Structure formats: C-alpha cells, structure tokens
C-alpha cells in the first residue's frame, strides 16, 4: 500500500500520455498454464468441521494499529496432535466465518457449511519442523480493510478441507480509519487530487483534507453492498479531494480526516508532496516508469500471487492526436508516450512468433503521429521484461548511436518496462536489429530531466538498484523543429 510519498516527479516539463491503463497484469495467450488464482484452488464448499481439543491457533497482537498503523504483521502460532503435509492456515476476514449461514434462502440438502473463503492462506509446514513437532509459527501481513480477522487450521489439503481449530478474532483499533491516500495530478499543473478509503459514510462523518494552511472539503462516494452475495467484500467509502491553485514546485503537506457529529476528528497520517512546476519552468524533474506490478504477497502467503486477465481499451486516436499536437515543445521539451500493451516494438517470444513484434496493428496507426510530433521515448508494459530499441521509424534504426544522442531527433526510442513484478517473459532467440538492450529481470526506468535540453535515461534492476542500461539525450528546441522523415512531409524508408 501507499507509503510516504514525495511526488516531485509526478509532473515535469514533459507531456506524458497514459493510455490503456490496464490495472491488471499480463494475460497473453502464451501463458495458458498460468493464471490460476491461488484462492480459487480451495474447495471451500466441501469444508467439514472437526474441531479437536488438541488443536489450537493463536494470533498476536490482539489489537492491531495501536499506534495508528494501517498495516501490521501478525504472528500466528498453531499446533495439534496429527500434523500432516496437507495442513494449512487460513486467514478469514470478517472473523466470524463459521456462524453465518450460506445465502441460499430455501436451504437445500448438502448446502455448503462455509460460504466464506479465506483472504489468504499458507501451508502449515511452511514453518520449519511442523511435521516433527506438530506445531508451527507463521507471520502474516494484514492491512486495515475495515473488518476483524480470525485464523483457522485446516487439514485435508485444499480439496477436502477439514476445520480443526479457530483462533480468537483480532482487529485494528479503528477499522474505519481513513487510509491509503493516493495522489494524482489534476487537470492542470497547479492541481492535485487525493483519493482515500475509509469506513465512514459521508452522512456519518465529514471528510476533508487539511493541507498547507487551508482546509478543503472532499466528496464522498458511497458503495452499496449487494444484498446477499458470497465472496463480496465491502470496499469502504472512496473519497476524493481536489487541492487547487498550488504554487509551482512548492512542497505541501496534506492530511486526510473525518469530522464526526460530536465534533471530534479522526485523522489519517500526514504526507507531503511537491507541486508540479509551471510548464516551462526550469527545474530538475525525475520520474520512475514501470509496468505490470506484481501482486505477490510480501509475507509469502497465497493470495494474489498470480495475475488476473488484463483489459485492452480502445485507443482514441483523436484524443492522442490532440494531446500530442497541443504540446508546446519550447516549454515542454520532452515528449513521452506510455501505454500498457506494446504498440511499439518488443522481441518478446510470443510477439515474435506472431511475426508482429508488437500488438497486431499496434504501431501501424500511431507511428506517423509519433514521428510527426517527435515523441522522444515511448514506454510499454504487458511484456514482463526490459528492452530498449534504437531511435526507430518504420522498423528501421535511424541512428547507429547507442548511448549519447544529440542534435536533430529523427526517430522514437521504444522501451519495454514491464518488469514491475509479475512473472517474467521470454525473448525470441534471434535478436532484431533494432533491439539495443534486453534484460529478462525485474526492474524499472528512471528518467531525469536536468533542464530543457538534457535528459538522462537509466534502467535499474530491482534486485540491487544499480544501473544496467542508460543513455543521454542532449538537444535544443531547434532540433525538435527540424524536418525528418514524415515529420513535415511524407517520405518512406523503404529501400
Ligand atoms: Fe498486461
């Protein structure tokens, strides 16, 4: 979840287009063996209950978030007389998963005993020597999602779960606390939005953001629970506030809060951000670029360890053209394009097998626009590795230079930065001429704009934070204006 966030790099003297913002990770047809959601393997409807006196599950601490934390590690100790490799520990939230009846109102024979699935689980012998001693200890990381938790010991594996012990419930001190503020740039350089989650309906408490010296109201959006459903989780209330008329490049603090009817205030944590610069203002700007962030659990438990199907939206060519054509390159010198799926170039093996080295027909309708409007770098995800091309137009390298680009720009550099954490993708064995650097590993890109004419690109591995690929671009406004293939009038590179 969100940590302290200094977002100086949210907006820079760069026009960045974020398209096809698919939240989910990859779902390429090459990955048919993957994609089983770990929780879906649990046959929870077959559960039987056989509580044993010798079996126990204990979780500590009993009170989470005592110091206002919104995430906390819990130690779960468990044991019983008949340990087996099929035993597993489940985390339930809400805690009371046993007494509730299943939703079928007419009650049919054989109706499942449990209609609530765990939110995560781990094998009991994940703890060393569990099979020998019949007891173990596992740590789970829990986040405040407005409900209490309980822990259960099952035997019989995931296919035929038999419940043998349940812990006492534990909960966060204030389950409704406002949590996880997300910052985003507003519609202009001097506006930021803060979006957060709480358990407070807008009629119960007044949501607001305190920032700088000004208190600004937010708006609450209610989410309604389906009347009787299984596996549905109350998402809480989502609030969004607009922080407007920000002074360029100035640091602000902000703090979310809810005022209750008795006048008391429930505060979130305090965070800071740096407002974007005025467009064209000389300033150092840095951004991080990565795609396809994995969803594996930090505590090693089985939850969203894999991906869910992604979605490809329809691009609105007019929208893209409008975005690109309204950039004032004198004041917004660096033009960065970003999309989720590969509309540029990738030597990922699946795309190579297709013969397209991209999403089919991805770049065909866009490359003239990128060339005409002189896009410096285009980023894509969906393919989970790193790859950087030469400056490129119509599949042809337009420069032999690899690391220090200067003067007139005559093609776009395409970058796959999909190593955010999802499973890694393979390359084709034959390396295309346009492919300058490939790395099948987890990593991210850091862009540093020192000023209007000097840009540093760095690719770093997540494992050690060191730079493994980099290049610089040095050029002036006139270099962006000069005519190259198809930027002023159509030509072809075919030979
Ligand atoms: Fe994807």
From TrEMBL:
Give the main EC class: hydrolase
Task: Give me the reactions it catalyses.
Answer: a phosphate monoester + H2O = an alcohol + phosphate
Q: Which InterPro entries match?
A: Calcineurin-like_PHP, Fn3_PAP, Metallo-depent_PP-like, PAPs_C, PAPs_N, Purple_acid_Pase-like_N
Domain named Purple acid phosphatase Fn3-like is located at 57-174
Purple acid phosphatase C-terminal domain ranges (all copies): 411-470
The entry's localization annotation reads: Secreted
Q: Name one GO cellular component term.
A: extracellular region
Leader sequence range is: 1-27
Kindly state the subunit structure of this protein.
Homodimer.
Q: Which family does it belong to?
A: Belongs to the metallophosphoesterase superfamily. Purple acid phosphatase family.
What is the protein named? Purple acid phosphatase
What organism, scientifically named, is this protein from? Answer: Leersia perrieri
The organism's taxonomy opens as: Eukaryota, Viridiplantae, Streptophyta, Embryophyta, Tracheophyta
């Amino acid at each position: 979840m969100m940590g302290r966030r200094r977002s100086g790099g949210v907006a820079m003297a760069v026009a960045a287009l974020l398209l096809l913002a698919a939240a989910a990770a990859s779902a390429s047809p090459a990955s048919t063996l993957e994609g089983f959601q770990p929780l879906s393997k649990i046959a929870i409807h077959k559960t039987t209950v056989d509580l044993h006196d010798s079996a126990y599950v204990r979780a500590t601490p009993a009170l989470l978030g005592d110091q206002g934390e919104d995430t906390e590690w819990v130690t779960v100790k468990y044991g019983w007389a008949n340990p087996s490799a099929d035993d597993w520990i489940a985390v339930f939230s809400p805690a009371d998963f046993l007494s509730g009846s299943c939703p079928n109102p007419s009650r049919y024979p054989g109706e499942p005993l449990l209609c609530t699935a765990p939110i995560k689980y781990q094998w009991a012998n994940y703890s060393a020597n569990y099979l020998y001693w019949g007891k173990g200890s596992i740590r789970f990381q829990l986040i405040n999602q407005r409900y209490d938790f309980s822990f259960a010991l099952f035997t019989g594996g995931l296919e035929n779960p038999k419940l043998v012990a349940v812990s006492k419930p534990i909960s966060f001190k204030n389950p409704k606390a406002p949590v996880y503020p997300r910052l985003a740039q507003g519609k202009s350089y001097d506006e930021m939005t803060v979006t957060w989650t709480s358990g407070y309906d807008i009629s119960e408490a007044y949501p607001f953001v305190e920032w700088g010296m000004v208190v600004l109201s937010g708006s609450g959006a209610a989410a309604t629970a389906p009347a009787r459903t299984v596996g549905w989780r109350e998402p809480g209330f989502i609030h969004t506030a607009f922080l407007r008329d920000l002074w360029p490049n100035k640091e602000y603090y902000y703090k979310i809060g809810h005022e209750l009817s008795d006048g008391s205030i429930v505060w979130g944590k305090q965070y800071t951000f740096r407002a974007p610069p005025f467009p064209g203002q000389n300033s150092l700007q840095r951004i991080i670029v990565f795609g396809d962030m994995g969803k594996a659990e930090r505590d090693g438990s089985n939850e969203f360890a894999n991906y869910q199907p992604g979605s490809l939206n329809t691009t609105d060519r007019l929208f893209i053209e409008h975005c690109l054509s309204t950039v004032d390159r004198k004041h917004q010198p660096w033009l960065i394009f970003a999309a989720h799926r590969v509309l540029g170039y990738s030597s990922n093996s699946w795309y190579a097998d297709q013969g397209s080295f991209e999403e089919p027909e991805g770049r065909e309708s866009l490359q003239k626009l990128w060339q005409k409007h002189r896009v410096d770098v285009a980023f894509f995800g969906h393919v989970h590795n790193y790859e950087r091309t030469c400056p490129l137009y119509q599949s042809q390298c337009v420069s032999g230079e690899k690391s220090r680009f200067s003067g007139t720009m005559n093609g776009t550099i395409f970058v796959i930065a999909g190593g955010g954490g999802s499973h890694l993708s393979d390359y084709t064995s034959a390396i295309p001429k346009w492919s300058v650097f490939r790395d099948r590993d987890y990593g991210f890109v850091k862009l540093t704009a020192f000023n209007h004419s000097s840009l540093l690109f760095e690719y770093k591995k997540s494992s050690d934070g060191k730079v493994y690929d980099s290049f610089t671009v040095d050029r002036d406004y006139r270099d962006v204006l000069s005519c190259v293939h198809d930027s002023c009038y159509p030509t072809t590179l075919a030979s």
